[in-house]
## 1
Amino acid sequence: MPGAVAATEVQAALELGLSTVKFFPAGTSGGAAAIKALAAPFGAVRFVPTGGVGPKNLAEYLAVPAVAAVGGSWMVPRDLVRAGDFAGIQAMTAETVALVLALTTANR
């Protein structure tokens, strides 16, 4: 997915016919507040923040209407991958899915 963190990049994406862009690295590019600011003039654009997204700030990103989805590697830590601990990865992913469901249900 093409990325865009600046208005000129969002505009370029629109000119290419894209309506959804990755917002990376989200944490160091202004986070949810920056997405809100970009969404104001680019109302038809949806964002997928990655980089610096995790359980502690997931609610902040999911509360932004312009956020289509979030991505993150916190669910697949390198140590678990190296160890082949796929049950651990599955458990972390299930915890994240439950958190997302709880957050999105609470925001309805």
## 2
Amino acid sequence: MRIASFNLQNLRPRGGSRLDGARDSDTGETADPALDRMDRKLTAQVIGDMKADVLALQEVFDRATLDHFHDNFLLPAGVRAYPWRHCSHGNDGRGLDIALLSRIAPLEVTGHAGLRAADIDLRGDPEKPVFRRDCLRVEFAGVTLFLCHFKAPYPDPASAWAARRLEARAVRRLVERRFTDPASATWLIAGDLNEPWEPDGNPASAPLLAPFAVDLMARIKEQDRWSFYDRWSDRYAMPDAFLASPALARAFPRAMPEIHREGLERAARRHAGVHLPSVGRNRPHASDHAGVVVEFAGL
């Protein structure tokens, strides 16, 4: 089973059959229908390159947008169909939610957008949902996925850190409630955990790290361990994560994540590899995130 995660950077409809390109609405970029379409063609190409059986997506507006992208961009790009698709409403005020594309029928998909801290015996604001978007639990025959997109580290870094720490504790609690012995079960946390630019000694995601889970991204050489580029600050980060249960990591000691940077803008100078032919210095590009994928052969 090949499992991927990809933040699509604002995949939202923009009237008729148009989709927004891979651009953020708060940067002042002018909408350009031609560039927007080229962006989304590149997004589809990266997804095709990853050849994932199961794909966790972040920043998808709704199920109709997901279906439109699948039928009008993925299929024309020659990507094999994903018959099982899911995107339910979360808590992102801009309507950017967590989505799932799968070629394997999930046994169950459960969202937790309405979860409050008290529901899982955690301390937190009783009036606010724990997750800024959602946490999707997706059950397959051999593995359970927890798909996440944590709070971004702005505008106030301290409060954003606290929000992400609560999200991390909540995901851990969901894993612990799902399995009597989490260490011996097979599960994977995947998604954009939004850890900030420079790693420090107290990451917000610490409740999910060793010994609770194994960070599969740590198997990549440190200098190559980045999946996000921000042109406005010219900085790189590794917010995209695969955190495996100890049993899953032990069963697949050679499962090495791949980072697909071919759709990133050429201004990301740290990427010395191949770009897709139509990628520009800034745009068109597939996203400000790379796609990440890991294979568990035989799962």
